[in-house]
Amino acid sequence: MVHKPTTARGAFAELILIVALALGLALAIQAFLVKPYRIPSESMEPTLTVGQRVLVNRVLYHVRSPRIGDVVVFHPPEGAELNRCGATRLPGQACSASTPSRSEVNFIKRIVAGPGDRLRIEGGVPVVNGILASEDFAIPCGGGGACDLLEEVRIPPDHYFMMGDNRGASDDSRFWGPVRRDWIIGRAFVTYWPPNRIGTL
Questions:
Q1: Which of 1, 10, 16, 107 is the most exposed place for a label (fewest CB within 10 A)?
Q2: Domain tally for the chain?
Q3: What share of the chain in percent tops pLDDT 70?
Q4: Catalytic residues
């Protein structure tokens, strides 16, 4: 038999408790399991558009390593907003190292190379360990200094090289270097807003 509060004060206290528990559960889910994220720029078009919202799995990378092709939310290196590289960037070469500290902002990009990979960029397309990536999801680069970076770099251990799908309109690892694994928040796995763009990634 379920006990029902017999007074208005008891009913109000029960309501407060239910709301507090629901709020605590929602905060715990967001902190440890799934986090919503709003797309702030056109750098991931056509996959994700400005204002679109995704859910980010915060648990997955405790079970397995990030993989090439994953769309991830992460903390970029400090200075990424100014395209600051953590190493001397040679002509015709992507940034090979990030600054040592992370920024507190969040970015969303796609992983195109992982630890130990050799990478160069041809026409905005990554060439990883000598193999040109097949990327029917990306918008071609369309010219510019970051479209052809033909001098290879090697991705450091526990680092991942990130690029936006809109190759001509994305400030990414080409400018500010690979991202440490422990700076990756999680993998974006589904888009839930707007309704006409609901789907998995």
A1: 1
A2: 1
A3: 85
A4: 43, 109
The domain that holds 142 is classified in CATH as 2.10.109.10
pLDDT digits (tens, 9 = 90+) for 99-128: 999 999 999 999 999 999 999 999 999 999
Is 28 domain-assigned? no
For residue 151, what is the enclosing H or E element? Answer: strand 149-154
Report which DSSP code applies to 166: B
Helices in the chain by DSSP H: which ranges?
8-32, 60-63, 173-176
Cα dihedral: 195, 171, 189, 54 (round 10): -30
Whether the per-residue pLDDT at 14 is higher than 80: the answer is no
Q: Is residue 2 part of a domain?
A: no
- 74 and 107 in contact (C-beta within 8 Å)? yes
Does residue 90 lie in a domain region?
yes
Question: What does the alpha-carbon distance between residue 141 and residue 20 come to, in Å, rounded to a whole number?
Answer: 49
In a domain, 10, yes or no: no
**109: Cβ–Cβ under 8 A, 6 or more apart, which residues?**
43, 44, 71, 72, 74, 162, 163, 164, 170, 172, 173
